[in-house]
Structure formats: structure tokens, C-alpha cells
Amino acid sequence: MKYLLKNLGILMIIAAVVVLAIYAVNNYIDNIYLIVSLLLIIAGIAAHIIFNKKVEE
């Protein structure tokens, strides 16, 4: 469980990259994909910083 928490931020950033790739490939007009990926990147960076300081192995 600690391993998953330590890598949760990285997984969120990877999910944001996948959302951006889907947006780029399919040429969607909606900006919701960009908003979701932005929120995932911000939350992923914050989670990575917070969980790596708090979780001890």
C-alpha cells in the first residue's frame, strides 16, 4: 500500500498524458479533456510531493 501511495502522483501524471494523447489523436473540439488533464497534472504533482514527504518505507 505504501508503494502505491508513493507512486500515486506519477500514475496521475501518466493518466493526464494519456488523456492529452487521446485529445490530440481524435481532434476533439471540447476543452474538457484539456481541463481534466490539467487537473490531473496539478493533483499528480501535489500528491507526489505530499506523499513522498509523509509516507515512510
TrEMBL record:
Keywords: Membrane, Transmembrane, Transmembrane helix. This is Uncharacterized protein. The chain crosses the membrane at residues 7-26, 32-51.
